[in-house]
Amino acid sequence: MSSAEQINLKIKEIEDEMARTQKNKATNQHMGLLKAKIAKLKRQLVDGPAGGGGGGKGDGFDVNKSGDARIGLVGFPSVGKSTLLQVMTGTFSEVAAYEFTTLTCIPGIIRHQGAKLQMLDLPGIIEGAKDGKGRGRQVIATARTCNVIVMVLDAAKPLTHKALIEHELEGFGMRLNKSPPDITYKKKDKGGVNIVVNRPLTKMTEETMRAICKEYRVISADFIIRCDPTTDEFIDVLEGNRVYIPCIYVMNKIDALSLEELELLDKVEHYCPISGNLKWNLEGLLEKVWQYCDMVRVYTKPKGQDPDWNDPVVLPRSKRTVEAFCNRIHRNMIKSFKHAIVWGVSAKHRPQTVGKDHILDDEDVVQIVKKV
Ligand SMILES: Nc1nc2c(ncn2[C@@H]2O[C@H](COP(=O)(O)OP(=O)(O)OP(=O)(O)O)[C@@H](O)[C@H]2O)c(=O)[nH]1
Ligand SMILES: [K+]
Ligand SMILES: [Mg+2]
């Protein structure tokens, strides 16, 4: 038996035990520990055999990042990923009725709202992908580097497919449409485990947190808990290495559905119905992708000239300071930065003089004044 099979067997044993255990207050801590054990085993699977050899540590495909954001097309074989890449980006990627037509990662570029979005067509994944089956590990490792996941689903197939793919991605440390739990975690050399909780815990106890720390051999650490975490979320904090990515569920091939079937899909959150090969609702999808990228466009204004409306600097909403803007224009610009003059939503006056920490908004105009 391979080591991956052995690990899978152990995971199965623990899952069986969890299924046998009644869920109540008394078993809560025990269940938490079992979940921690599974998380540790899953990490072993993802990291692969010690010392490398087969493929290395979750390596993705070797495609350079380019553009302002990266969008990954993920899904089972033959759901229409390559068709979608072609109609969205104009880049050729082979389309065929048989499964596993695409065997590598194919990048295309979409220009939208002045931004450049890199879209990646990926091979289909199968169940057990995260455990090293097929090219799944490479696909998921690449998906982890994306700003937005577009999960492509065949609208005529059961919705359980969505849960299966989610499970694969989750097993590789991806968290879709979730935000990280509001927990500060600092390891220390001594002093024991200190947990400061500033709101009532309803989903797990402090005792369970301590037990899970012990399972992870965390002897001394400070925690500040500002949320009401589940056991899984607490384990995520200890595991680290989680990525939180927005995801759009694209229901493709809606041309094959009746109106009644289409209406049922409306209940799925974060979803977007399309037909790739009939080019239905591609505009709607692009708008949604742009929205989920959550970026702002900032226009540069050279002194005494009009702003350059054609070529905005595109920044993630989470990093939209004047300093980030400068760094995108030139690596050394911040060294000669004196102040900036800003027009637009973020400015209190028209214009406002601001420092490098000023937070910009979508469609602001910025002029940089340099030290002399
Ligand atoms: N009816 C219908 N068929 C579609 C649509 N989009 C794609 N197809 C067909 O679905 C089949 C698979 O399409 P691909 O684009 O190769 O799918 P893929 O997901 O890239 O497949 P793999 O690379 O093998 O994983 C082809 O026969 C396409 O013509 C659609 O919107 N409606
Ligand atoms: K195919
Ligand atoms: Mg394909």
From TrEMBL:
Signal peptide, first to last residue: none
GO molecular function list: GDP binding; GTP binding; GTPase activity
Domain of life: Eukaryota
Keywords, sorted A to Z: GTP-binding, Nucleotide-binding
GTP-binding keyword on record: yes
Every OBG-type G domain range: 69-294
InterPro entries: Beta-grasp_dom_sf, DRG, G_OBG, GTP-bd, GTP-binding_2, GTP1-OBG_CS, P-loop_NTPase, Small_GTP-bd
All copies of domain TGS, residue ranges: 294-370
Any one Pfam family match given in the protein's UniProt record, by short name: TGS
PANTHER family referenced in this protein's UniProt entry, alphabetically: DEVELOPMENTALLY-REGULATED GTP-BINDING PROTEIN 2 (PTHR43127)
The protein's name: Developmentally-regulated GTP-binding protein
